[in-house]
From TrEMBL:
Residues 576-590 have a biased composition (Basic and acidic residues). Residues 327-573 form the ABC transporter domain. The chain crosses the membrane at residues 37-59, 71-91, 147-168, 174-192, 253-276. GO terms for molecular function: ATP binding. It comes from the Bacteria. This is ABC transporter ATP-binding protein/permease. It holds the Pfam family ABC_tran. Signal peptide: none annotated. InterPro entries: ABC1_TM_dom (IPR011527), ABC1_TM_sf (IPR036640), ABC_transporter-like_ATP-bd (IPR003439), ABC_transporter-like_CS (IPR017871), P-loop_NTPase (IPR027417), Type_1_exporter (IPR039421).
Length: 613
């Protein structure tokens, strides 16, 4: 895989059982690129390591006054220089390719998992953690995958040089062959502590990222309550904790780097001291001493890759563990489905609660618990994030359909929809039936003032449809964002549309017009709205009260308001005192009040409650 061939047609199925298994899976899926980098790494490192032999041969030729051997040494040095240049160029090219393609594979896997889980992802993993995994963690994972081949080439080169020195000059070669492995493993006792400090730093950085993400997302609310300084102080403290953790981690890695400089220096001093004594005794030549000395000097270069691979693994291991944690998340149902991918139609029925939404009608659902309403709305879309009985559309279990087919049949808009940045035209450019145009959807959602605000805020856009919407629509009010999201859902014109509190952030006059526009535009289509707004409930063909997971009443709004105390309490926000007053007023009507004034006051209060509904 080359960079120009990205993205992958299929990134594959990762082994997400653990961080090391995920790293090994990535490595196995890049064997071609790894072997290419290994080959060029061997060319580069062996060419570098051959220079001392060439230099030693040249010096000995000068000592012996041999012009032929000097010319041979010059030719070998030119060949080694060519190998260094070619090997370094193509090693860098192959290594960067491995890094980018590994990071791209992980990003595609994360994007696919996010699309599969949908809103359930942020319920199971913090949003800041997801951002950290898809940015910084991806880079660290790619770094380790890329460094493996270079480390392997460096290790093989060191082994070859040690063997060559032993064969070339056994007296000095044995010292080098014993000393280099000691240098390579000398830092191993420090790695666990360095790894723990790196993990701690990453944990603090993830917390700071999550805090920053939450603060930016709620900036409008923070400004409204004057809480900017409070959250700014929290982020300052979190940032300082990250800084302290990073300094402690850097100190440990600085110590490891110092050891990697100190020990080769001591080995070099030992070899020079011992080699000088051997040369004085006539046991080695000057060229052999220079060769051994130069070999140790140049071997410090491949030895640095031992430190790099240790750092890369220490930083990538927690990153891989977090990425594997996200990639291991699954829905409780088979998203590929076991039925043919045919979009069903008919009544929408939930066996768990008994909720029935007849085909082609406007059904409103009243649920006193907002969280329970959100879970029920998600279940109506099929393939929910929590296990349970499958909802049926036209008698077909939605969980047995492929996920994309279930989404085509039933569209669920949750209570906090997200607007992506771009133009309004791009926002409404979604898969649709073609039966509902953008203008119709915007009109039904009462977006006239939103269009005017967008046109006023975008001086370069003559058409409001070309006006830019900022990230998550933060330049708009909550009601404006809600109405644009509703218009986007209406454009799709699905067989079944499920809306969870679609008008909770708009005023009552706008809400009344939305209720009429929604019913008119969705005429003949199945629409389910979770709401406690009397304006929407009064427009519904059928109202269902769900209490503690079961349907307890079915009817129309005005009928339920008078007959169902629980329904009335949810819709009118009636308190216990008001309920007692209502009961007393009714009893007074039946038995005759003791005081006409008290009776009139009770009746007036009763009428106010009913009018508010």
């Amino acid at each position: 895989m080359q960079i120009q061939d990205l993205p992958y047609p299929d990134p594959g199925v990762p082994d997400a059982r653990s961080g090391p298994r995920f790293l090994w899976w990535l490595f196995r899926n890049q064997l071609g690129g790894q072997f290419k980098a290994l080959a060029w790494g061997l060319v580069h490192f062996t060419s570098v390591s051959s220079l001392p032999f060439c230099v030693g041969l040249a010096i000995q030729a000068v000592v012996d006054r041999s012009g032929g051997r000097l010319a041979l040494a010059g030719g070998l040095m030119a060949l080694a220089g060519t190998g260094i240049a070619l090997g370094d160029t193509f090693l860098h090219r192959s290594a960067v390719t491995n890094w980018i393609t590994a990071a791209a594979r992980v990003q595609q896997l994360l994007a696919r998992k996010a699309a599969l889980l949908g809103s359930a992802l942020t319920r199971r993993v913090a949003a800041g953690e997801v951002v950290a995994v898809s940015t910084g963690d991806v880079e660290k994972i790619g770094w380790f995958v890329e460094a493996v081949s270079r480390f392997t080439a460096a290790a093989v080169t060191i082994v070859l040089v040690c063997v060559g020195l032993v064969l070339y000059q056994p007296a000095l070669g044995v010292v080098v062959a014993v000393g280099l492995p000691v240098l390579a493993v000398a830092v191993l006792p420090l790695l666990p502590r360095a790894t723990r400090r790196a993990d701690f730093q990453r944990e603090k950085a993830g917390r700071a990222t999550e805090l920053a993400s939450d603060t930016v997302a709620g900036l409008r609310v923070l400004r409204g309550i004057g809480g900017e300084e409070l959250f700014l102080d929290r982020y300052r403290r979190a940032s300082q904790e990250v800084r302290h953790a990073a300094v402690r981690s850097a100190r440990m890695w600085a110590l490891i780097a110092a050891i990697q400089v100190l020990l080769p220096g001591l080995l070099l001093i030992t070899v020079v001291w011992y080699g000088v004594h051997l040369a004085r005794d006539g046991r080695i030549t000057v060229g052999e001493l220079v060769t051994a000395y130069s070999s140790i000097m140049l071997l410090t270069y491949p030895l640095r890759h031992f430190e790099e691979i240790a750092m890369a693994y220490s930083f990538s291991r927690p990153s891989a563990r977090r990425a594997a944690g996200v990639l291991s998340l699954e829905r409780p149902t088979d998203t590929d489905g076991s039925r043919a991918a045919e979009v069903p139609s008919g009544d929408l029925y939930d066996p768990a609660t008994g909720l029935l939404a007849p085909a082609g009608r406007f059904t409103a659902v009243v649920c006193g618990d907002p969280d329970a309403a959100g879970r029920l709305a998600e279940r109506l879309g099929g393939h929910p994030s929590q296990p349970g009985t499958s909802v049926r559309l036209g008698g077909v279990p939605l969980d047995e359909l492929p996920l994309d087919t279930a989404r085509t049949a039933v569209l669920v808009q949750d209570k906090d929809p997200v607007l992506l940045s771009g133009t309004l035209r791009e926002l409404l450019d979604v898969p649709h039936s073609g039966a509902v145009g953008s203008a119709e959807a915007l009109a039904a959602a009462q977006c006239d003032d939103v269009l005017a605000a967008l046109a006023q805020g975008s001086l370069d856009a003559a058409d409001p449809m070309d006006a830019l919407i900022t990230e998550r629509g933060r330049s708009l009010s909550g009601g404006q964002r809600q109405r644009l999201a509703l218009a986007r859902s209406l454009v799709t014109d699905p067989e079944v549309l499920v809306l969870d509190e679609p008008t909770s952030a708009v005023d009552s006059h706008t809400e009344a017009r939305i209720a009429g526009g929604l019913k008119d535009l969705r005429a003949g289509r199945t629409t389910v709205v979770f709401t406690s707004s009397p304006l929407l409930l009064d427009r519904a063909d059928r109202v269902v009260l769900v209490h503690e997971g079961d349907v307890t009443a079915v009817g129309v709004h005005r009928e339920l308001l008078h007959k169902e105390p629980l329904y009335r309490a949810v819709v009118t926000r009636e308190t216990d005192e008001e309920a007692a007053l209502r009961d007393a007023a009714r009893e007074g009507r039946d038995t005759g009040p003791a005081s006409p004034v008290d009776a009139l006051e009770q009746i007036d209060a009763l009428e106010e409650i009913e009018e508010s509904a």
